[in-house]
Specification:
The chain is mostly helical and about 120 residues long. The protein is about 40% helix and about 10% strand. A two-stranded parallel sheet has the order 1-2. It is elongated and about 60 Å long. The mean pLDDT is about 85.
Length: about 120
């Protein structure tokens, strides 16, 4: 916790998972902080003792990572430190999954045939 009794996301997620959505749009300063934490496994708190979080970080973005690195908005060393890159195509590219997902959620919500057809036609 800081001097005001607040803890940051990494500290409050200790023992769990931190999901960082749209990490490719993080400010340069935040990218540096994440890189440091991933490299050293320690958070240097201002005016406090270092903290070693037990946290799993999952990073996601819909930005093309290679383009963001080439444009200089995303640090290559952060991308390399994150490690595994998994590309999940959009549903637009996986039309066959739309019906499967709709049927799954229809069990809970209920979809009319008209609604299912609209889902399949939607771009």
């Amino acid at each position: 916790m800081d001097k005001q009794g607040r803890s940051g996301h990494l500290m409050s997620t200790d023992g769990g998972t931190l999901f960082v959505d749209e990490f490719a749009t993080l400010s340069h300063d935040l990218q540096v902080i994440f890189l440091s934490v991933l490299e050293h496994r320690t958070i240097e708190k201002i005016g406090g003792d270092p903290f070693t979080p037990d946290v799993r970080c999952i990073f996601a973005t819909n930005v093309d990572i290679d383009i963001a690195v080439a444009e200089g908005t995303l640090r290559r060393d952060l991308v390399d430190r994150i490690g595994i890159k998994i590309r999940i195509p959009s549903l637009r590219e996986r039309r066959g999954d739309v019906l499967m997902l709709a049927k799954h959620f229809a069990k809970e919500q209920g979809f009319t045939d008209r609604c299912l057809i609209a889902l399949l036609r939607y771009e």
